[in-house]
Amino acid sequence: MDTMERLIRSTQELLWERGYVGTSPKAIQRRAEAGQGSMYHHFDGKPGLALAAVRRSAGELRAEAEARFSAPGTAIERITAYLLREREVLRGCPIGRLAQDPDIVASEELRRPLEETFAWLRGRLAGVLAEGRARGELSDGLVPEEVAATIVAVLQGGYVVARAAGSAEPFDQAVGGLLALLRAHVTLS
Amino acid sequence: MDTMERLIRSTQELLWERGYVGTSPKAIQRRAEAGQGSMYHHFDGKPGLALAAVRRSAGELRAEAEARFSAPGTAIERITAYLLREREVLRGCPIGRLAQDPDIVASEELRRPLEETFAWLRGRLAGVLAEGRARGELSDGLVPEEVAATIVAVLQGGYVVARAAGSAEPFDQAVGGLLALLRAHVTLS
DNA sequence: GTCTATAGAGAGATAGAC
DNA sequence: GTCTATCTCTCTATAGAC
């Protein structure tokens, strides 16, 4: 793994753990085992490095989710698989976490990957739900775009409450409650 | 308003806007119009001041929520009123926001008010739901504790996605989807 | 209670040698 | 490409005068 790659991965890790405000160039260099000059040769500074790291994390999140959405099964099966997939709950979401960072939100360029990631996620979930409805798997009463937004919010909020509690339990309960609410709308086969 | 009070309120605002890591004693002093010596006379430092501010914010959040929960009306009416109450969505939740902060979560003392606040909130919502179920307003199929966790997560996650989008729209959609899912379990009168 | 002085450490870069 | 030196601010206090 070359220096530039190590710098990006170290930045991804630190942004996840400490956010943008809590991450210093020096800390990145230490973790990447790269020198000062090395870092400023490859990137123009903290914002540029963060942008590369955020884009990388966003792509990874998207690929991970897409694997569940495009798997075989009914709409509700795929969404359930996505909700119940293994997660390191107490670490939180590497993208959602950054939405709380004042310097990320203040920068149009750094915020955009976050916006696009969640827009894609909501759109993809809405598509799966609409598909399920068209196939008669789900009741007609639901608006796919709304329910998709609810699903994303339950995951993001689940992380928040779990971190506050120092335990994954609130996350699991929130997902359990969501699945129970969704099940009422599944047309039993 | 005396100096100590101004220090606490300024800290509350800054923790909300910039988090613990992003808030410096100097910034607090500036906003409170208090000098260095003044701040360190009243508090032992940044952690102590933050603790006072977090406890204050937690109490305010609780009072605000309790007003909705103890209002007259059916369970679903009170929960709907709580969900739809006016919020400054893009500012996020003053408590939930801190759950992303590495230094808050690393400190048992600073994390505890967050844990207690959400535990209270989930318990109170579960109580309202259980009451509604006992009165025959809600279907028996739901586990109050789970649905309560889902409701809290939708709000917290709604803030996250809204901030990422730079717009309150995802928050409103998520709440709309949750209300639609809940409505299916309301026993119509 | 509030003020000013001081201080070691880190943040976030720039410059120039190799 | 990488290294070391240097620089200006800021962070988070402590000390002592008023």
From TrEMBL, chains A, B:
<keyword id="KW-0238">DNA-binding</keyword>
<feature type="DNA-binding region" description="H-T-H motif">
    <location>
        <begin position="24"/>
        <end position="43"/>
    </location>
</feature>
<dbReference type="Pfam" id="PF00440">
    <property type="entry name" value="TetR_N"/>
</dbReference>
<feature type="domain" description="HTH tetR-type">
    <location>
        <begin position="1"/>
        <end position="61"/>
    </location>
</feature>
<dbReference type="InterPro" id="IPR001647">
    <property type="entry name" value="HTH_TetR"/>
</dbReference>
<protein>
    <submittedName>
        <fullName>TetR/AcrR family transcriptional regulator</fullName>
    </submittedName>
</protein>
<keyword id="KW-0805">Transcription regulation</keyword>
<dbReference type="InterPro" id="IPR036271">
    <property type="entry name" value="Tet_transcr_reg_TetR-rel_C_sf"/>
</dbReference>
<keyword id="KW-0804">Transcription</keyword>
<dbReference type="InterPro" id="IPR011075">
    <property type="entry name" value="TetR_C"/>
</dbReference>
<dbReference type="Pfam" id="PF16925">
    <property type="entry name" value="TetR_C_13"/>
</dbReference>
<dbReference type="InterPro" id="IPR009057">
    <property type="entry name" value="Homeodomain-like_sf"/>
</dbReference>
